[in-house]
């Protein structure tokens, strides 16, 4: 215990107070911004334009990186206006070169980090990384038949899984049904074309949902589309990654199939099942504050809009960084489209919308 500032009863207290790793990190960072004892960082070594609003970033990590499996996601941090902001991104590709990986980021409406990465980030910039997580990965023993369903940015982990299949010399059959709004929105198209050309086990069908083009199919996922493209879907392992509407219709159509899914929740995404009926009062019990929110978007977003920044990570219901205790009031889950009870429970505020006045332990 300290008895006086700068005087310590125990040598270990003195050593702890030095926070030598922070100092060493600071000094190492002066030599090379990628060096660190404690932090995982990556340097942007290449940037590729995918579409008008998405880019692929090739990253070289420092030695603290513990590795990742195809299909997993990880937190990426950038400093914007002096504030460290973190979002989760899926691995979109692994390189054979050690500690080299790639993410593909599409600008999302209102997406702070996705805009920053697309508009400001340059080759040579340093990003903060966190540990990889997620079980949207291939099994150790590969099945004979795999069906991938992807929508929009949901192609990113699927692309890394296809690369993984190639690396593992896949002997079965894989089909990918990929939904984009229009042909200019197809992310990773060159790489997908090449994968299909080089691997006879792979068949890709692009489907556009908003604007027709002669080259591609048009429409949303339907029973007919599924039966025509993948009549053996019942015998396939299904990987599903995309926004909630695609997930919902795919899960209904594919009832009974073995499905691995990953959700991409778009900012401002609302659910129709629980329409807002006016502003809600939210009492933040730990901050001794009561604020009004609209009850239209996620609680996390609505708090941020009024300048209250709660802990968050993936912002799509995966990482659980945003979990807080609700003491009273009801919320609706924006993905499952279910209303909660009114009692005490832990909620993820990034995917929960206020249905009633709330008391939160925040
Ligand atoms: S921020 Fe990741 S679950 Fe809410």
Automatic annotation (TrEMBL):
Pfam families: FAD_binding_6 (PF00970), Fer2 (PF00111), NAD_binding_1 (PF00175). It comes from Leptospira ryugenii. PANTHER family: NADH OXIDOREDUCTASE HCR, OXIDOREDUCTASE-RELATED. CDD domains: fer2. The lineage of its organism: Bacteria, Pseudomonadati, Spirochaetota, Spirochaetia, Leptospirales. InterPro entries: 2Fe-2S_ferredoxin-like_sf, 2Fe-2S_ferredoxin-type, Beta-grasp_dom_sf, Cbr1-like_FAD-bd_dom, FAD-bd_FR_type, Flavoprot_Pyr_Nucl_cyt_Rdtase, FNR_nucleotide-bd, MRET. Residues 37-139 form the FAD-binding FR-type domain. Residues 280-362 form the 2Fe-2S ferredoxin-type domain. GO terms for molecular function: iron-sulfur cluster binding; oxidoreductase activity. This is Flavodoxin reductase.
